[in-house]
Amino acid sequence: SDSFLSVRDLFVHFTTEDGIVKAVDGLSFDLERGQTLGIVGESGSGKSVTNLSILGLHNKKSTSIDGEILLDGKELVNATESEMERLRGNKMAMIFQDSLTALSPYYTVGRQISEPFRKHTGASKKEARDRAIEMLTKVGIPHAKQRVDDYPHQFSGGMRQRAMIAMSLVCNPSLLIADEPTTALDVTVQAQILDLLKDLQQEFGSAIVMITHDLGVVANMADDILVMYAGRAVERGSVREVLKAPQHPYTWGLLGSMPRLSGDVDEPLLPIPGSPPSLLNPPTGCAFHPRCAFTDKVPGDACATERPVLPTGRAAACHLSAEQKQQVYIETIQPR
Ligand code: SF4
Ligand code: MG
């Protein structure tokens, strides 16, 4: 594949005292330059782990990774730590959920933005400081010239998130990975930060992987959606296709608990019963089968015994027929 980011048959397994956790279990996806992919799923679906492995930030001792991650043609799974260090913060950067994880309390905000810039570009202290002020201005920090010498605790939560975005973008990365970037913020600030990210993406042309459990964020930000369940991709398509006519029973459940975009109260239509499976011992066949209300529509016991594949393009990994995937959705969910 000649996609900008191409993940092929990725397996990420952790060794724990209790056994092997199959956090990512055969995942493939592609992302083009300047596009946004929303990776959606409950916690424990493998979405965060996937992205830590792309960045090479997983625990090397307890993790085994198999498969292929190609960034602009460069293989990352077998890259050395120093190669990864050169890429991180430079060609690819991460925005975390909690700015306090990313920002050190001991250094000024300006220093934390200018340091990666100096490291990757060899800029002088003065140039890097100017760049930090420029970036703080870009992310909407008022009086950036003065605020550049503040410490993170002198910033509000929303401002810290903006400063972290400035830090992530300072080297103009072509891949930005945002893990629940607005979950910790109140709704108004959330919307501002998402708008800011969209503007900056336009300006910098970055590809974004947006990891979230919030379909509202995806609807607003992403071009494509990848729905994950138990470390596997279960549905893929454009935002429009997936939100308008989802094909996988798990996605139906997720959409059932999606707040209406009109801002009405959250009204679960089809809450997903049960809880996410143990990744120590994932269910056989379709990992969703213990929670799925549609297994009786599939002949035999295929749901419990045969792992459904996710075909390429617009698709869902489910044994239901193409017609059933449409019909079931219309019968059970459409009227709302
Ligand atoms: Fe449900 Fe079977 Fe489809 Fe899995 S394969 S989502 S268990 S109908
Ligand atoms: Mg997570």
UniProtKB/TrEMBL annotation:
GO molecular function: ATP binding
Keywords, in A-Z order: ATP-binding, Cell membrane, Membrane, Nucleotide-binding, Transport
UniProt keyword Kinase, yes or no: no
Keyword Oxidoreductase: no
Top-rank lineage group of the source organism: Bacteria
UniProt xrefs under CDD domains: ABC_NikE_OppD_transporters (cd03257)
Segments forming domain ABC transporter: 5-255
Subcellular location: Cell membrane
UniProt topology in membrane: Peripheral membrane protein
PANTHER family to which the protein is assigned, alphabetical: DIPEPTIDE TRANSPORT ATP-BINDING PROTEIN DPPD, OLIGOPEPTIDE TRANSPORT ATP-BINDING PROTEIN APPD
Membership in a protein family: Belongs to the ABC transporter superfamily.
Protein name: ABC transporter ATP-binding protein
Classification of source organism: Bacteria, Bacillati, Actinomycetota, Actinomycetes, Kitasatosporales
